[in-house]
Amino acid sequence: MNTLLSIQGFLFILLGFIFLITVHELGHWLLARYYKFKTPIFSVGFGKPYLTLGKKFDTEFRLSAIPFGGYVAIPAMDDVSSQSESEPRKPVGQRAMVALAGPLFNILLAIAIGWAIFGWYGKVELDFQHLLIQGFSQANSAAKVAGLETGDRIVSVNGYQIRSPMDLASSLSGNHGESVSIEITRNGKEMSLTISPSQEGKLGVQLKPVFKRRFENLTAFEALKKSVQDNMAMMKDVTVAFGQLFMKLFPSDSDPATSNDGDLELSGPVGIFQIGIEAFRSGGYSYWYFLMVISVNLGIINLLPLPVLDGGRILLYGIEAVIGGPVNSKIQQILFGLSAFFLIGLMLWVTAAELSGLL
Length: 359
Description:
Elements: H1 2-34, E1 41-56, E2 59-73, H2 92-120, E3 123-136, H3 142-146, E4 153-157, E5 160-161, H4 165-173, E6 180-186, E7 189-195, E8 205-216, H5 220-249, H6 269-282, H7 284-301, H8 310-323, H9 329-358
Antiparallel strand pairs: 1-2, 3-4, 3-8, 4-5, 4-6, 6-7
Helix pairs in contact: 1-2, 1-6, 1-7, 2-5, 2-7, 2-8, 5-7, 6-7
């Protein structure tokens, strides 16, 4: 059953990514059509066309063999994939808006998904249930010696109800090695054990707080407000994370602390699919919330000022507007190659780190 759920989860996550990519490219395409740019190809995926869906609005719509990406061929924006189809250069402001439309559509989609799930399911509230023992820090830890087992649930300490991880820490902090009575449940049965914590008040256990999820109904306006708030918070977090990544990759001599690992955590394709599959297993709310998170991340990441991304295009168009002409094509090609090399290298680095953690 778990294998089947994993396969289903993988397929649904893949379909979700294709949906997000399609919306992203749809933003480019709609703005290009609005400004009367030629758009000979709208492709979901890269590489050899797998399926041609037909030709509408002077655009051939196709599915390509590699589903992780997509593009709209727009000759007026110096699209490398369609250089053979010449077209007079359009105003730089229009080209910038077409480049901006893709990330903007992903951000708007994220807000729309959030509005829908908060309106349908409501706002999630987590009620603490119990602390679950997942393991032991040492084979001869105080908890292990006293008879605690993996899977036990801690109910109380010396009659003091444990309603949060902080409760457990508080109840043990003043004991300094003195024995305490811990109430647990094991396989549905209540038990009492006497344990002598360490002088620091430690039991030597690995704990997992378990919460019960409940939903609080929201009005349509409240759901929209929460969606905007959540997505704005995520956009800020993504921006800060990339700032931390930059400081980590290029630490300043005047601020050696920036070279620390800190709390920066990155997920590559492996980690993202793992998180997505777990979200799929958790139900509709978690699956759509995951897609909301990916969509807003996709929007912000594409706004990074790297020439291979939409943000880099916008930056080059801004320079063009200032200097009165496009940046030299050879320089653009060099910048494009360097930024592509950087992104591919970063992705391989993160993926290698993830795989090493799984092995």
